[in-house]
Amino acid sequence: MARMKFYCDAERCIECNACVTACKNENDVPWGVNRRRVVTIKDGEPGERSLSVACMHCSDAPCAAVCPVDCFYTTDDGVVLHDKDICIGCGYCFYACPFGAPQFPESGAFSSRGKMDKCTFCAGGPEETHSSDEQRKYGSNRLAEGKLPLCAEMCSTKALLAGDADIISNIYRERVVNRGASVLDWGVSYEKASLRESRNMKGKVSE
Amino acid sequence: MNVAVRHGLIQILVVIACLLLFAGSPVHAQSSQDDKAPVSPIDVPNPGAELWNAVRERGGAEPTQQHPLTAIWEDVLQQQDTAAKSQARSADATSMINASGDQWRQLRREQLIPYGGALLLLSLAIVIGLSFVKRTAHYSESDMIIRRFKVPSLVGHWLMAGSMLFLAFTGLVLLFGRFTLLPLTGSDFFSAFASASKEGHDLFGPIFTFALIIFFFQFVSKNMLHYRDFVWMARLGGLFEKKPLKAGFFNFGEKTLFWLVIFFGIALSVSGFAILFQNLLPGRDLMLLATLVHAVSAILLICLVIGHIFMALSTKGTMDAITTGDVDANWAKADHSVWYEQMKEAGHIRKRIAHASDDAGKEIPVAEVSAEQTGAS
Amino acid sequence: MSERLEKGIQALRDKMDARIASYFSSCVHCGLCAEACLFATESQDPIYTPIYKLEPMRKVWSREYSFWGKLGAMIGVTDNVTEEDFANWETLVYDSCTMCGRCSMVCPVGIDITYMIRKEREAFVAAGYTPEGLQAATERAINIGSPMGVTLKTLQATIRSVEKETGLTIPMDVAGADYMALFSSMEIVNFEEYIAGLARIFKAAGVSWTVSSKGFEATNSGIQIGDPEAAKTIVERVVSAAEELGVKSVISPECGHAFMAIRWEGPNLIGRQYPFKVIHILELLSELHENGSLQLEGMTDTPLTYHDPCQISRRGGVIQQPRDLLNSVASNFQEMSDGGDMNWCCGGGGGVSANERADEIRLQAFNIKKKQLAELDGVETIVTACANCRLMLEDGLEHYELSHEVTGLTELIAEHIKQ
Amino acid sequence: MFTDFIDGPFWTFSVSVFAIGVIWRLISIIRLGVPGDLAVPREDGGAGGMRTILSRFMARPAVRKRALLIVVAGYMFHVGLFALLFFAQPHIDFYVDRFGVPAWAGMPRWLFILTAEIAFAGLIMAWLYRVMHPVTRMLSGIGEHTASWLVFFVMLTGCLALLEQYDSLRVLHFFLAELLLIYFPFSSLMHTFTFAFSRNYTGATMGRRGVDA
């Protein structure tokens, strides 16, 4: 079975926030909630990098471990989802998540924060696939249609990759190796990427 | 053994036991991490996994075999959130990665829940075991009573006790329910139950704080330490002596309980409000600290209260003090000799009113009283 | 069920009106009335809680006017009022309630407990559960004309003594006078200074007044014990005397319940309005002082305080007048805490003073006056406007070994008449 | 099934019992009548009645001093409950939905929570006072305790359902509120309405005598 992962290439991300917009639009995420966000370091300085961050769909997800009502589950695709009918809005998943992915839908004190919301890898939720309940609570279920999350699909620089971990690992590995090569080079710009191996071209790795 | 002495000692022992248990468990224990079988190991280089590894390494452990690709993240990781920016305005939005959440998770799952649960069960077991020990009444009843607590003090105590018990119950549901109740009841029921517990816990928290403040001011003057208390402490509460030691309104054990309740109560209140108003806290680390302080203080306080309830229920005459406010004069003489003498001097010892019925009944033999009154005239 | 019990229950049933039904429907047993009752606060015994004194009446209400009570009566679980109840509550209703009305002032839902106590006493009379002292006083009031057994001869003797002392004539049976003065027996027997003071003041103010030989007694034991018939007889005596003399106003003396009886209860007892006005002596004095016919002089600097008789201030509405009068003759008048319409009762009103059985609890309750007096700054003189209060204050002060002096307000005013 | 019953026929039943019961109780009080007063009044009785209805909302200093706890607790509970009943947004929404009345402004969420805290603390303290104070302990019967606990559980289930997500919790709250409605006319909870009658009667009598009762 595939394991779905996101990967964001810091070398490519241009902080356009299209992924954020796409996510909000596709899933009708309420105002103030960010299932995905773009973080920029060294803004305006040499070495500026941006990354698009969302739920990483961890294999050993801390959110699931701390949930007092055990509402998290991992799908066959390796997507970490939660059941909003069971969630009580305590916020422990938000504490535990290293990426700050689960979000309170509201920001008041006491119990006014509502149930947690988080990235679903555009895979809906426990409701019946493509039902209106699923759409209302979790957003769209693109995965069931054979599509990838819209954030990655929308990424203009293809910095944000989503999909089977094996495949995006390969893509990424190729990118790393190819980095710094001339785009005029046939093997770089076109399909025969394997050519560079024989040419002994070394990728620019930031070691 | 003198009751009051035993009261104090049990409480002290329970607290020490709590502290030892927690001290014995290394906070940042990573060892158990290794035993855990990964959910689904991925052999291929995996960006998510790499990032994750980086996080783990930053958690304090020695860097394991570092994949070259991880270095990409090092840049990001080293920057942390100092100079980071984001369009998102939610809490901690600029912090890309925060490893403390994972430490918190480990602490919670591997120390707090198992050891805390064990401690609570241990306290219960001690109390249940002690309840089989046969106890003889330490005083004989008389028809003279002394007013020990005024009505506002009683109300203050029970408001705090009632809200504390409710909070303890709902809090334990949230901490342990997933492992104890959930398997029994199923998700649907437990979820509604946990939600109710959480909302109730949130709402009653401030009531506990309010009660704690009132309680503190009502009782603080009686709980100031006295040289008598140091004697009490030095002679181990008279544990090995035949006659009970002198005690004022409260003995050293009771005073210890008071100050521990106040201490844990403040810890619970402060951390509780921090959790309630976490949207106002500057960062996630404080929230994590607050929940830990909250849980640890709560478990220790519950252990104390278990002992306290046991002592109150098992010691003859003690419940009278906190339900009606009046105690038998002989009870006072036996347990609080100094206070008894003071009351005696001030002429505060009075006769039990014969018709004061405890069952709120309307059948009160008025005739006797009036006969008594008219007899004099 | 014995006949007297039946009569008692029937009387309780008959007293039930919208007020009482509303009162019992509203009571949530909050216990605040106990904080206002001097018997409850001073004895610290919950049994003296005012609303608890109405338990027999509440039982009847519950059985006949409340759902659970009716249901319980039907299946036989709600117990009815018993003779034992009457016997037990007799002491509560008569010995430990002065009908001072303090509880009625603090009830958050506005229950007039005093009103109900009066009604309940009527049922106790019907059932024949009344204290001997009060019973005897009522009999004397009906047969002799005064609860203390004061006859016209006694009055005449007192009047002679007053006339000798003051050199003034007390006008007896003068038809067409403006005012007809009433006295309480205690004034005639114990405090003739009051009569003397009255004579001096009226002389100075030029008031045309008289005393009737047929109706001079102001007190009304019938009201205290709760016997409407006796009360009616006593009121009618005064009314017919006043009508015979054709006076414009009747002056109620310095006596609490007398004022209440003649001013507020009287017309309802005899079932018609009077052809004359009823005015309390303090109201009259204040009026005379204000319109200038009574000139006062000299200020005493003795620190003094005023004890409000319950039936005059709280239940009678004469609150400001005594204060105005006092302030015009005394430079150091100090108000007691809770003074005015919330003043604590002397403990002897509502027939308690006539009930020897109640002496112990009454004196215990007097402790509250002791506390009130202790708060004042150097006050050694208590002014009051009720002969009964005066007697009770003196008794209580003696019991607690206090040296305060008690005096009547009218006497004090009489001492300051401008010559 | 259960939900449908609670939210349907049982709701109609309880509201009817409440409305008919309250009106019946009030009429049966008024029907008993009040004897007239022939004494010449100092002041108008009607004005006195109105004055007392209003003035008794404030506790007299004489009793406030002596029984501060129950006075404060009483205020906390009554003011809190009133605000919760009529100005909590979920309740307003409910009234609008059930009775078709136009909506009015509710409390902001933080005030709602604060009010609930105050009402709870007040109710608990008042009940504790009831069982702790010798006077109220003696006076209180099963009726008072039933009323206190019923109100407490209605409030408690209401606050447990604060997340407004679980139908089971909402229905529990609703069900207890219906029980309270049914119990209401048969209990001293009637003081909610009869307090005005009582104060008016007392105030009118005392007002005629010129006393501000």
TrEMBL record, chain A:
<keyword id="KW-0560">Oxidoreductase</keyword>
<dbReference type="GO" id="GO:0051539">
    <property type="term" value="F:4 iron, 4 sulfur cluster binding"/>
</dbReference>
<keyword id="KW-0004">4Fe-4S</keyword>
<dbReference type="InterPro" id="IPR000813">
    <property type="entry name" value="7Fe_ferredoxin"/>
</dbReference>
<feature type="domain" description="4Fe-4S ferredoxin-type">
    <location>
        <begin position="45"/>
        <end position="77"/>
    </location>
</feature>
<keyword id="KW-0408">Iron</keyword>
<dbReference type="GO" id="GO:0009055">
    <property type="term" value="F:electron transfer activity"/>
</dbReference>
<feature type="domain" description="4Fe-4S ferredoxin-type">
    <location>
        <begin position="78"/>
        <end position="107"/>
    </location>
</feature>
<keyword id="KW-0411">Iron-sulfur</keyword>
<dbReference type="InterPro" id="IPR050954">
    <property type="entry name" value="ET_IronSulfur_Cluster-Binding"/>
</dbReference>
<dbReference type="Pfam" id="PF13247">
    <property type="entry name" value="Fer4_11"/>
</dbReference>
<dbReference type="GO" id="GO:0016491">
    <property type="term" value="F:oxidoreductase activity"/>
</dbReference>
TrEMBL record, chain B:
<dbReference type="GO" id="GO:0009055">
    <property type="term" value="F:electron transfer activity"/>
</dbReference>
<keyword id="KW-0812">Transmembrane</keyword>
<dbReference type="GO" id="GO:0022904">
    <property type="term" value="P:respiratory electron transport chain"/>
</dbReference>
<keyword id="KW-0732">Signal</keyword>
<dbReference type="GO" id="GO:0008863">
    <property type="term" value="F:formate dehydrogenase (NAD+) activity"/>
</dbReference>
<dbReference type="InterPro" id="IPR051817">
    <property type="entry name" value="FDH_cytochrome_b556_subunit"/>
</dbReference>
<dbReference type="GO" id="GO:0005886">
    <property type="term" value="C:plasma membrane"/>
</dbReference>
<feature type="transmembrane region" description="Helical">
    <location>
        <begin position="256"/>
        <end position="277"/>
    </location>
</feature>
<keyword id="KW-0813">Transport</keyword>
<dbReference type="InterPro" id="IPR016174">
    <property type="entry name" value="Di-haem_cyt_TM"/>
</dbReference>
<keyword id="KW-0479">Metal-binding</keyword>
<keyword id="KW-1133">Transmembrane helix</keyword>
Automatic annotation (TrEMBL), chain C:
<dbReference type="InterPro" id="IPR004017">
    <property type="entry name" value="Cys_rich_dom"/>
</dbReference>
<keyword id="KW-0411">Iron-sulfur</keyword>
<keyword id="KW-0249">Electron transport</keyword>
<keyword id="KW-0813">Transport</keyword>
<dbReference type="GO" id="GO:0046872">
    <property type="term" value="F:metal ion binding"/>
</dbReference>
<dbReference type="InterPro" id="IPR009051">
    <property type="entry name" value="Helical_ferredxn"/>
</dbReference>
<keyword id="KW-0479">Metal-binding</keyword>
<dbReference type="InterPro" id="IPR017900">
    <property type="entry name" value="4Fe4S_Fe_S_CS"/>
</dbReference>
<dbReference type="InterPro" id="IPR017896">
    <property type="entry name" value="4Fe4S_Fe-S-bd"/>
</dbReference>
<protein>
    <submittedName>
        <fullName>Fe-S oxidoreductase</fullName>
    </submittedName>
</protein>
<dbReference type="Pfam" id="PF13183">
    <property type="entry name" value="Fer4_8"/>
</dbReference>
<feature type="domain" description="4Fe-4S ferredoxin-type">
    <location>
        <begin position="89"/>
        <end position="119"/>
    </location>
</feature>
TrEMBL record, chain D:
<feature type="transmembrane region" description="Helical">
    <location>
        <begin position="67"/>
        <end position="89"/>
    </location>
</feature>
<feature type="transmembrane region" description="Helical">
    <location>
        <begin position="109"/>
        <end position="129"/>
    </location>
</feature>
<keyword id="KW-0472">Membrane</keyword>
<keyword id="KW-0812">Transmembrane</keyword>
<feature type="transmembrane region" description="Helical">
    <location>
        <begin position="12"/>
        <end position="34"/>
    </location>
</feature>
<feature type="transmembrane region" description="Helical">
    <location>
        <begin position="175"/>
        <end position="198"/>
    </location>
</feature>
<protein>
    <recommendedName>
        <fullName>Nitrate reductase gamma subunit</fullName>
    </recommendedName>
</protein>
<dbReference type="InterPro" id="IPR036197">
    <property type="entry name" value="NarG-like_sf"/>
</dbReference>
<feature type="transmembrane region" description="Helical">
    <location>
        <begin position="141"/>
        <end position="163"/>
    </location>
</feature>
<keyword id="KW-1133">Transmembrane helix</keyword>
